[in-house]
């Protein structure tokens, strides 16, 4: 069953039923201010960093799911009936529900008892604020007396602390209200120089800034007491849980429309000009007031929205295809590019299953993502490369993640994911091919952000390659370290303590376990670096590095070939992983795609054999699985991969990211039809017809697809399909 349809002309996905199998979300913001918004207005906002500068609160794992967000309530004052035009949180039987997720904006609306309400949410380019552009229309034949309430719940900035440190947090909340603007200024009195504001274009009948005053004791967002009674208490208490609620009253003649603009924003003041008058505790509003005044004007909003639309047309027009297949066109021309840009902005730090507190930007992830968006924003790609390279370790290794706010490597996750450095070479090569900006190689970039350690970027790339060469194992293949692309293949972890992190625990010295995946990545990276040297006319370096690539390719064929496919790895005992000799996990997808991509076994024939094995053992109608047979129990020597029940995540789901490697490999071998066939199996638009089974958004590639037939021997009660 479908829950909506693609509007290709407007580049929107239009959801026509609010109770989608999961919240179907969109992202607002492209620069510093970001928001996640679901099809029923759930979600939250943050400035730059989803953990450290969270603007609104969101409860992951809530019941009902996705409760809390950017809500508007409408109330018919003749009978006290109230509802939300976005369906949540009141869940009335609204008519004409529609959610249009577009590029950088979302419009949600519906009609209830003759009142049409629609909200357009977006972040104007260059601004640290989001607009809620509300239109209310009386579609009935009689005059109507109405109230409207807006509502956000503020987060006390550090999202992690906000959800744990209640003894402090319940005592520090502070707000100011001036006319129709609610300012959230918790901790502004001390070390913060930033505050949030929630402004409204209309005069207010009242407001609330205390959650319990708005909701009433023991009530939820679905029936706030203030809305039920049409009374607000103008609460201004210190502490508690700060919210922003505007209360408006107005009447509408038949056919009449009213437009109200709300702005939710973030603002910083200079440290020495925080208060006005100086010496007081009142926010200095000199620099924020002009912004608020400007964006509360409808004509400014309309212009900003037009600019946003145009900015996206410009971004997308860099790469447009016209193929005979609508699913290809739709994904390549619109949604894949959009997903790549969102991924560029946020890496994987905030989504509906990454809570925004758990991780920063991945070194591997951000480099590999660059391959998908470099053509759209070459300048920003350049900056990202330099930021990433500046977190590199002097020995050529990398911190696995960094925090976007500080741009510093994140110690909590550490380093020694031994594939990481290879991705920097690949991203720089992609950047050069797209831009021919050879000057970037001469940029002075530090290591670990330490002043005084700067070398040119080209030297960083050399160190990436050298890092692998300094970390070779007994078969001459690269040592895996904590993990390679597959974060869950933890061959040195040997964890037997509940709760230990697989990503950071190391119980072996790491001198034995090797990765065929890193061998392929190294070969690819070294070939790229050799080409760069050739372009720079450094013939000796070209020869030297090309030889390194050739040697690694030869070693891979010698030590990494299992007979019918490429091996995945050698474990801590020197035993093969991903071999026909293994009881489980006999074949893995990653090396079958990456080795041919690196040119390994293409001439010699192994690539062809390996891809035939993929088709035979791993390909399903829902995509190509990560491994087979799945691990049925926990293996100390394999780590997290074997913690997942069969068919889930890295233990044999269709992990979408790996599928294109096989498609590219097929293309390299001249099997275009097979590549296309594989592509359509995971193409989200093509899968739209099975939305009930697929569960996820039809306009976005999911991290992984899992289904009953992928779950091996796992007992499944057919009454409870788990879907994908
Ligand atoms: C997930 C991986 C992820 C890793 C690091 C694991 O639990 O399965 O997909 O890369 O955590 O966040
Ligand atoms: C998600 C991580 O972000 C990515 O870096 C990793 O390669 C995959 N999981 C596979 O483990």
Structure notes:
The protein has 724 residues and is of the alpha+beta class. The chain has 18 helices and 33 strands. It has a ten-stranded antiparallel β-sheet with strand order 1-2-9-10-11-12-19-16-15-14, with helices on one face. Strands 6, 7, 8, 13, 17 and 18 form a six-stranded antiparallel β-sheet that branches. Strands 3-4-5 form a three-stranded antiparallel β-sheet, with no helix packed on it. Helix 8 packs antiparallel against helix 9 and helix 14 packs across helix 16. The two termini are 14 Å apart. The C terminus is likely disordered. It binds beta-D-glucopyranose and 1-deoxynojirimycin (NOJ). 1-deoxynojirimycin binds next to helix 8. The site of beta-D-glucopyranose has 7 residues, from loops.
Class based on secondary structure composition and strand pairing: alpha+beta
Report the radius of gyration as a whole number of Å.
27 Å
Instruction: Report mean pLDDT, rounded to a whole number.
Output: 95
Number of helical elements = 18
Helix content: 25-40%
Biggest sheet character: 10 strands, antiparallel
Strand and helix layout:
Blueprint: E1 4-7, E2 12-15, E3 25-28, E4 33-38, E5 43-47, E6 54-56, E7 71-76, E8 81-83, E9 95-102, E10 105-112, E11 115-122, E12 129-138, E13 144-157, H1 159-162, H2 166-169, E14 175-178, E15 181-184, E16 194-200, E17 206-210, H3 211-215, H4 225-229, E18 242-252, E19 257-268, H5 289-295, H6 298-316, H7 326-346, E20 361-362, H8 363-373, H9 378-389, E21 401-403, E22 408-409, H10 420-435, E23 444-447, E24 450-456, H11 457-469, E25 514-515, H12 516-535, H13 539-559, E26 569-570, E27 576-577, E28 587-588, H14 590-597, H15 606-617, E29 619-620, E30 623-624, E31 627-628, E32 654-655, H16 659-668, H17 672-682, H18 691-694, E33 704-705
Antiparallel strand pairs: 1-2, 2-9, 3-4, 4-5, 6-13, 7-8, 7-13, 9-10, 10-11, 11-12, 12-19, 13-18, 14-15, 15-16, 16-19, 17-18, 20-21, 21-22, 23-24, 25-26, 26-27, 28-31, 29-30, 32-33
Helix pairs in contact: 7-8, 8-9, 8-10, 9-10, 10-11, 10-12, 11-12, 12-13, 12-14, 14-15, 14-16, 16-17
The structure holds beta-D-glucopyranose and 1-deoxynojirimycin.
Residues 359, 487-488, 503, 640, 649-650 line the site of beta-D-glucopyranose.
């Amino acid at each position: 069953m479908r829950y909506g349809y693609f509007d290709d002309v407007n580049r929107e996905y239009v959801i026509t039923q609010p109770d989608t199998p999961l919240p179907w979300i969109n992202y607002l913001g492209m620069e510093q201010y970001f928001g996640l918004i679901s099809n029923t207005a759930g979600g939250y906002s943050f400035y730059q960093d989803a953990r450290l500068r969270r603007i609104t609160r969101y409860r992951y794992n809530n019941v009902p799911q996705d409760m809390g967000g950017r809500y508007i309530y409408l109330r018919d004052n003749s009978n006290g009936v109230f509802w939300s035009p976005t369906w949540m949180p009141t869940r009335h039987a609204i008519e004409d529900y529609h959610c249009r997720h577009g590029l950088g904006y979302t419009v949600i609306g519906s009609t209830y008892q003759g009142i049409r309400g629609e909200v357009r949410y977006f972040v104007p380019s260059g601004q640290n604020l989001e607009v809620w552009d509300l239109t209310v229309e009386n579609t009935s034949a009689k005059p109507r007396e109405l109230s409207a309430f807006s509502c956000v719940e503020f987060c006390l900035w550090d999202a992690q602390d906000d959800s744990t440190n209640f003894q402090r947090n319940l005592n520090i909340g502070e707000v100011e209200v001036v006319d129709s603007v609610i300012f959230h200024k918790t901790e502004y009195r001390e070390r913060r120089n930033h505050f949030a504001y929630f402004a409204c274009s209309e005069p207010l009948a009242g407001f609330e800034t205390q959650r319990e005053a708005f909701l009433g004791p023991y009530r939820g967002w679905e029936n706030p007491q203030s809305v039920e009674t049409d009374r607000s208490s103008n609460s201004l208490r210190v502490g508690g849980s700060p919210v922003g609620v505007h209360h408006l009253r107005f009447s509408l003649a038949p056919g009449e429309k009213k437009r109200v603009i709300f702005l939710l924003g973030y603002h910083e003041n200079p440290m020495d000009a925080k208060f006005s008058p100086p010496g007081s505790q009142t926010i200095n509003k000199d620099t924020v007031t002009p912004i608020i005044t400007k964006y509360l004007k409808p004509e400014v909003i309309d212009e900003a929205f037009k600019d946003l639309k145009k900015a996206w047309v410009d971004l997308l027009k860099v790469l447009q295809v016209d193929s005979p297949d609508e699913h290809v066109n739709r994904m390549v021309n619109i949604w894949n590019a959009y997903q790549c840009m969102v991924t560029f902005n946020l890496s994987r730090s905030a989504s509906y299953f990454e809570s925004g507190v758990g991780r920063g930007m991945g070194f591997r992830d951000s480099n590999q993502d660059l391959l998908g968006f470099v053509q759209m924003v070459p300048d920003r790609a350049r900056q990202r490369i330099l930021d990433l390279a500046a977190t590199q370790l002097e020995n050529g290794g990398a911190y696995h993640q960094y925090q976007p706010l500080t741009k510093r490597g994140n110690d909590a996750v550490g380093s020694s994911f031994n594939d990481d450095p290879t991705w920097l070479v690949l991203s720089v090569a992609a950047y050069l091919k797209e831009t021919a900006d050879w000057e970037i190689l001469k940029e002075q970039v530090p290591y670990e952000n330490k002043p005084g350690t700067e070398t040119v970027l080209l030297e960083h790339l050399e160190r990436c390659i050298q890092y692998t060469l300094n970390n070779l194992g007994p078969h001459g293949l690269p040592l895996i370290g904590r993990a390679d692309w597959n974060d869950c293949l933890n061959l040195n972890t040997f964890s037997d303590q509940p709760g230990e992190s697989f990503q950071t625990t190391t119980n072996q010295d790491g001198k034995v376990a090797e990765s065929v995946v890193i061998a392929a990545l190294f070969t690819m990276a070294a070939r790229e670096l050799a080409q760069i040297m050739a372009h720079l006319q450094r013939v000796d370096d070209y020869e030297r590095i090309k030889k390194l690539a050739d040697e690694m390719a030869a070693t891979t064929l010698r030590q990494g070939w299992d007979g019918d496919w490429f091996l995945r790895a050698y474990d801590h005992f020197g035993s093969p992983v991903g071999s026909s000799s293994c009881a489980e996990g006999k074949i893995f997808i990653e090396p079958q795609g990456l080795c041919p991509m690196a040119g390994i076994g293409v001439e010699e024939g192994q690539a062809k054999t390996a891809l035939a094995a993929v088709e035979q053992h791993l390909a399903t109608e829902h995509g190509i699985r990560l491994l087979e047979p799945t691990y049925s129990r926990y293996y100390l020597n394999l780590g997290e991969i074997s913690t997942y029940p069969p068919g889930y995540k890295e233990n044999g789901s269709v992990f979408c990211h790996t599928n294109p490697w096989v498609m590219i490999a097929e293309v390299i071998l001249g099997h275009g039809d097979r590549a296309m066939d594989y592509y359509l199996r995971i193409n989200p638009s093509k899968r739209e017809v099975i939305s009930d089974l697929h569960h996820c958004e039809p306009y976005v590639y999911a991290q992984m697809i899992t289904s009953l037939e992928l779950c091996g021997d796992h007992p499944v009660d057919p009454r409870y399909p788990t879907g994908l």
